[in-house]
Design a protein that fits this description.
Elements lengths: L2 H4 L7 E3 L2 E3 L3 E4 L6 H11 L3 E5 L24 E5 L6 H14 L5 E4 L12 H13 L3 E6 L3 H10 L3 E4 L13 H10 L5 E3 L5 H9 L4 E4 L1 H4 L4 H21 L19
Parallel strand pairs: 3-4, 3-10, 4-5, 6-7, 7-8, 9-10
Antiparallel strand pairs: 1-2
Length: 267
Amino acid sequence: MTALAASPLATDTLVIAGKPYRSRLLTGTGKFKDLDETRRATDAAGAEIVTVAIRRTNIGQDRDAPNLLDVLPPDRYTILPNTAGCYSADEAVRTCRLARELLDGHTLVKLEVLGDQKTLFPDVVQTLAAAETLVRDGFDVMVYTSDDPILARRLEEIGCVAVMPLAAPIGSGLGVQNRWNLLEIVDNAKVPIIVDAGVGTASDAAIAMELGCDGVLMNTAIAGAKDPVLMAHAMKLAVEAGRAAFRAGRIPRKRFASASSPIEGVI
């Protein structure tokens, strides 16, 4: 029996747009020193979905430049084009349509429409507008958003296949700063909730999963580490541990001690 088959999580899959995935860790492909490091870190993370900034990464637009798809081929990974760097709904929609052309009709996209360059918080008004257009246009939209439970519900109602609230600002490494909002979003969602932004280290990823989130997407926390490949491996283990702990159900918090051994029948 293989280690995977023996694992309690072996049949616990993440389903996005009707497709099941064993890994709940989604990774970015930017900020690595080269494509080889990108490949090795992605392998170490065990990621099956990798997100690609269409406006910054070559996936065939430039035939004379190194192509990310040569090291992360679409027959092995689900390529998730994202709209990083877009500040309006129109920009984001055009970018998604370009990705669909480059990837031969691929419809799964990650939508993000930013509000300003300092905080990189989402512009929720433009995000809603872009999401409505993309869903009408036949895209399967995974959407980066704020931690507002009402907005998360609205994006689900529009037809987004996954909602991706931030845990803290993009690239901040602050970890989960909004656990009560995330809990509210998770408790009311009928689509996967994937933490996107703010994770800094393995314990942050584990906390997000212990809260009941369905997955975690990260880039800077891995690519910016002193040893990206080792950190990718750590994140893989953290996501798996957090998911297992959530499913197992933690003990309630108490103010006072509770003996590990029962006291009934003590001589």
